[in-house]
Amino acid sequence: MITMQYRIVLPADYDMEIIRRRIAERGHLTDDFPQLSFKAYLYADRSAGNRENLYAPFYLWHDTQGMNTFLGGMGFAGVVESFGRPIVHTWSVWCAETAPDLSIATHATREILPIAAHASLGELRNSESIGAQMDLERGAIATIRAYDPTTWTLLRFRLWQSNIHPSVEDGVDVYMVGHLSQPSAKH
């Protein structure tokens, strides 16, 4: 499995209703996308207390074939046409726990943490798996732990079914979920 996210930072005075409308009109287009585990159409709104206005979809792919098909297709071409070509970050998944139906997700959190040069990746992977189980016990309906070996960073991503209080910690982004595509939930 592989995760992917692009974050489009929008001006401070951007009308976020444009993003909410975009999600409402186009979100269904990935509801049956091949090799997609889920896509969370995420956004952050300064008027709701976030640091910046963002459009930041997050994807969990079964394999790179699905990701490559999406990036080479019309859906991503529409993103490029509207916002320019964003940097697409990817992470190799250590563990992904998801509820059978994620459509109840209303919020998401994402943390990016540096991996210390002396850290044992095996031990870190094990402790992150335990942390993922703790996320589920705290009410997360999805939790992903992944890493990027090009930047040696750790990703912690969670979906929640209720409002969460934005963390003041650096490296934690809090998003609202505008739509959730989860092809496997239909089958």
User: What is the end-to-end distance?
Assistant: 20 Å
**Which range does the strand content fall in?**
35-45%
| Multimeric status of the protein | single chain
Uncertain regions spanning at least 5 consecutive residues: none
The shape is globular
Kindly report the CATH topology: Alpha-Beta Plaits
The domain count comes to 1
**Overall average residue pLDDT:** 92
> Which structural class best describes the helix and strand composition?
alpha+beta
What is the N-to-C order of secondary-structure elements (H for helix, E for strand)? EEHEEEHHEEHEEE
At the first level of CATH, the class is Alpha Beta
- Largest sheet at a glance? 8 strands, antiparallel, barrel
CATH architecture: 2-Layer Sandwich
Total beta strand runs:
10
Rg estimate, integer Å: 16 Å
Number of helical stretches of at least 4 residues: 4
Across the major sheet, the strand order is 1-5-3-10-7-9-8-6
